[in-house]
Amino acid sequence: MVTNILVNKAQIPTTLEGPFKPVTRRFDPSLRRGSDDLPMDHPRLKKNVTSNFPEQIALAISSPTSMWVSWVTGDAQIGLNVTPLDPKTVASEVWYGKKSGKYTNVQRGISTVYSQLYPFKGLLNYTSGIIHHVKLDGLEPGTKYFYKCGDSSFQALSKVHSFESSPKPSPYAYPHRIAVVGDLGLTSNTTTTIDHLTQNNPSMILMVGDLSYANQYRTTGGKGAPCFSCAFPDAPIRETYQPRWDGWGRFMEPLTSRVPMMVIEGNHEIEPQVAGITFQSYLKRFAVPSEECGSKSNLYYSFDAGGVHFIMLGAYVDYNATGAQYAWLRKDLARVDHAVTPWLVAAWHSPWYNSYASHYQEFECMRQEMEALLYQYNVDVVFSGHVHAYERMNRVFNYTLDPCGPVYITVGDGGNIEKVDVDHADDPGKCPSSSDNIPEFGGVCHLNFTSGPAKGKFCWDEQPEWSAFRESSFGHGIFEVQFQLLLSRL
Ligand SMILES: [Fe+2]
């Protein structure tokens, strides 16, 4: 419970001053709602190293004393017949140290490849370059390290990059700034978002799902579509163009090679292929600290960064109270030591609280299954994406204003090809029908409200009281935790 938070000079209001009167900032209808994808030959997407040299370099926090370094070597293939590369042909090494030019340590890791196979007439197959993951351990928390990655046996090392390890878990140390972004894609708007995010100099990125939008394409590439099913109604399977993932990795590298990015999967990462195989690109490309936190799946995990315990939940994997994710979550929450990590932040892709018409009540089943557990353990803030707009909720539990409920924030407005969402469920004529907004995973649990001004109805007639502020725009969020706030936290 928060009692007497200190307010800094900027006078950002605290939740103690809430609940706030709902505010809506509408989209200017004279503006375009989105932009096209960058082409594969755009300088930020094009491969600019030769075969065995590392590219698409990305960091992820493993623990305050360990960091994942991931990269790709070799050439991906696309065609009717593709032959997977042998991951053993290129070593996975990271040379690192606290001084530039003096790499006193070397760590070796693992490498893998994946294929995306569509054995349907007219569709092409893909097999990836070699994806390398190396865990650097024994790091000092909050310390700058320099590194090169690659294979030293044939002098194929990257240029020097640097990162700062996470602060030690403690109520007095926090990441400098955490950038929160979702539903990013690879458009001109994405470029603006990432450039702006980079200028804000974050020390960590929380990526709340829907990353590359490779599944807005046919396997033959070409031009991406803002609506796959509208543009390609006869597709035998929802196709993807996996080279977009490689373009995305290159586009992100200037940022992710120095700032750790913590990802969680969204619906655009499902990417079904032959034999019901899903999530291959997400699972193979990104290292996440699942083993470190006792999770048996890379689709959900947790980690500490300074005095914040982050919980990343999978909305597209079993979330029922009888399942493995729920059991892990309960254990993980029970293990949190509030004296060390007093702040609990959760993130998953699809929001539970959302007053836009898009995805309205889509993940109501997940909310009904898991909300009480998060409330019981006093989760402070929840970040989600999926809806392509911004919305911040008043503290809420079970659709009722509650000073002990989390603050839910939707930031699915990274800039993807599907365009910004502008309609609210409470706008005249915009309340979705019960057949709209069917989730790509899990059941449908749409409900009519049982109390309050919308009692008996599916949609409100005005912005709901639990919605504090909503704005249809593209962008990202900056999340800062300041230790002095803790002085008054009981
Ligand atoms: Fe989504």
From TrEMBL:
Could you say which enzyme class this protein belongs to?
A: hydrolase
Top-rank taxon, per record: Eukaryota
Q: Which cofactor does the UniProt annotation name?
A: Fe cation
Listed EC numbers: 3.1.3.2
Output the CDD domains linked to this UniProt entry.
MPP_PAPs
Record field: catalytic activity:
a phosphate monoester + H2O = an alcohol + phosphate
Q: Where is the Purple acid phosphatase N-terminal domain?
A: 54-164
InterPro entries xrefs: Calcineurin-like_PHP, Metallo-depent_PP-like, MPP_PAP, PAPs-like, PAPs_N, Purple_acid_Pase-like_N
One of the entry's Gene Ontology molecular-function terms is: metal ion binding
Q: Residues in domain Calcineurin-like phosphoesterase?
A: 177-390
Q: Does the keyword Magnesium apply?
A: no
User: Which keywords does this chain's UniProt record carry?
Assistant: Glycoprotein, Hydrolase, Signal, Zinc
Question: What family does the database annotate?
Answer: Belongs to the metallophosphoesterase superfamily. Purple acid phosphatase family.
Protein name, per record: Purple acid phosphatase
- Tell me the lineage of the source organism: Eukaryota, Viridiplantae, Streptophyta, Embryophyta, Tracheophyta
